[in-house]
């Protein structure tokens, strides 16, 4: 039984390491650059990426800062936190490397408000929410987006 627990922990280490490597490659950052940005040694980061070491929450936070992604996304991947209720869309927002933390939070807040509205109001409000977020002709802005602010 202990062996299966050890194997599960090792799998988590490989999973988080692979996820960090994918995020690093997406951000076009070298291993050496990320190690410097995160304040960890190059060999240690390499061991994390290869699944040989399982980083602490503090190290994950430093790596997330270096990657300019949410530490929460790394915590979920590492099994420290459970996946947030918003599912894949919320995860995509949280891990988007080209958004600031403030932009991510605003998007998550708007998304959650739509979800609450649709849950509380029933099916009638779902149609309204969809109409407001659908792209206009040829992917252009919607009529909702063209309205001047009041």
TrEMBL record:
InterPro entries: Cro/C1-type_HTH, Lambda_DNA-bd_dom_sf, TransReg_Diox_bact_type. Residues 117-150 are annotated as: Disordered. Keywords: DNA-binding. It comes from the Bacteria. Pfam families: HTH_3. GO terms for molecular function: DNA binding; DNA-binding transcription factor activity. SUPFAM superfamilies: lambda repressor-like DNA-binding domains. Residues 20-74 form the HTH cro/C1-type domain. One of its GO terms (cellular component) is cytosol. This is Helix-turn-helix protein. It comes from Saccharothrix carnea.
């Amino acid at each position: 039984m202990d062996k299966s627990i050890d194997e599960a922990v090792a799998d988590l280490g490989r999973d988080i390491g692979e996820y960090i490597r994918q995020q690093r490659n997406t951000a076009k950052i070298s291993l050496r650059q990320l190690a410097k940005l995160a304040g960890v040694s190059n060999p240690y980061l390499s061991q994390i990426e290869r699944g040989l070491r399982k980083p602490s929450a503090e190290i994950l936070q430093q790596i997330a800062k270096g990657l300019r992604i949410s530490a929460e996304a790394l915590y979920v991947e590492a099994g420290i936190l459970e996946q947030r209720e918003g599912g894949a869309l919320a995860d995509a927002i949280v891990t988007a490397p080209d958004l600031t933390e403030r932009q991510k939070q605003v998007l998550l807040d708007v998304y959650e408000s739509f979800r609450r509205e649709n849950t509380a109001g029933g099916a009638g409000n779902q149609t309204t929410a969809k109409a407001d977020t659908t792209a206009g002709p040829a992917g252009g802005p919607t009529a909702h987006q063209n309205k001047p602010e009041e």
